[in-house]
Amino acid sequence: MSARILLIDVEAARTDALARALAAAGLELLGVVSDTADVYAQVEMLNPDAILIGVDSPTRDTLEGLAVIGRHFPRPILMLSDSSDTELVHRAARDGISTYAVDGISPLLLRSLLEVTIAHFQNLKAMQADLNQAQKALSDRRAIDRAKYLIMERLGVGEDEAYHQLRREAMDQGIRIGVLARRLIQAGETIKAKDKNP
Amino acid sequence: MNPYAMSEAPVVDFGPPEKREVTIGFVALSDCASVVMARHLGLFERYGLEVTLKRQPSWAALRDRLYLGEIDVAHLLYSTAYALDLGVAGPQIDMAILMGLNCNGQGIVLSERLLRAGVVDALSLCRLVRSQPAALTFAQTFPTGTHAIWLYYWLAQAGIDPKRDVRMMTMPPRQMPEAMQSGRIDGYCAGEPYGGSRIAAAHGGFKVAASAAIWPDHPDKVMAASRSFVKRYPATSRALIAAVLESARYCDDPGHHAHLASVLAGPKQLDVPAETIQAAFDFEPDVAGGGSPLRFFGDGLVTHPFASDGMWFLTQLVRLGFAGEDIDYRQVANAVTQTGLYREVAKAMGVPLPEDVDRSVRLLGGDVWDARDVDGALPAAR
Q1: Helix axes B329-336, B374-381, angle to 10 degrees
Q2: A103 touching B, CB under 8 A?
Q3: Global pTM?
């Protein structure tokens, strides 16, 4: 048995990766619908067994309206009577995902859906953190290079000596070398600006 | 010191709050004014509270966060407080209504396409519905909400069966005007500023009826929390009521309307131009010239929570099919309505108190709701 899943207004979803993870758990991703689409028509047409929607999507109220029409429309999972996976539901909500499911969906599939969803979005978060880290390191290296050349120019020293001075000064001030480099660059630009407009 | 704080009003001591830090969830509508202004004017601090306001993108999100304990107190649709208490169309929470937050200020808007087809009121809408085969589509804001109730009541009063003669859907109010303009819906019921004539006119529509035409000076939003919150933190609850009461009094002063509108217009509040918001505080009639301004205090009549009002909203939840007819109206309403707590605070603050904790209401079409005579009033209400 499989369950058909619809995604609505879920930000930053690598949907191809999510679709594969869902498929491995016996869940079929029907598609991704934007917040501005006619959600009523989409849900009526695609007839999903469960819907994942961004916790802060205003369209959630539209789903609430569908949920009260009939049993074949997914309902907010918080009210499913046999939802013993409260902790999973809370974790999904903290990751920014609200889940709606039809009454008849098997508890096992529902559990898989929640687990796959949580894993996917935590993965995304971790990837984003890695990316931020890498970008910061790159920007530090650029600043250090520029500061080094400023020191070489001003003091007439070689590259190694300029780097040593930079590192020593950062240690003395108790700040990261990248932070000091940015300050030197900024100060250099201020001096240049003053030179131009005395 | 905030120049708008009413420093001349004495601070009544309701005892040290058991819980100082309180999170209040609200939805970006004009009727959240007294809560937002209480924060803005520093009134919560005056009563010893540190309040964080959290704007909620949907009623569903507000409800879930109340259920999960991420927010303590909510600016909530009156009838939805009861739906939560009954556990219908959502999770069950034993609910407490601390006070009323507003009266009036909701509107029913129709597309000008209907106006061109001769619709100027509910009766002419009924004629159109009868004469054309294609069903019209109307939107309200939440299945168990007050806008669904006003819209159903208004349609039914004119002889239109809201469940059979038209298509009904739920939609966030911010999306409604454009949906009407693009032809996806033919009309809607929403709170100010979306149910107001300015936004309606800007999107090819007109305000056909103010909610006050259905029930003059009706309540709409309440300040609500779980009953366990009120039981655990009675002094905090009193302080919350006191701060919002003081704010509500400030909000009703016509001299302050421009200030309210400018605060609500902010990007973290409604994010709508101030003059669009202010229209409802002054007076903005519907197409028939009817209606009443949005009010927050009304000399203590707006803020007083009447159990009888709660019972009427219960009858409407039954009418919409969310609750069975066997509910004990009186028992449910008495448990939810925190009349004693409110009256204690209001009395200490010198806010006028109505003598009776119930009131009778004459509704559109002449039906009278009198909770003191439930057996007599129920058939008409349902």
Answers
A1: 90
A2: no
A3: 0.86
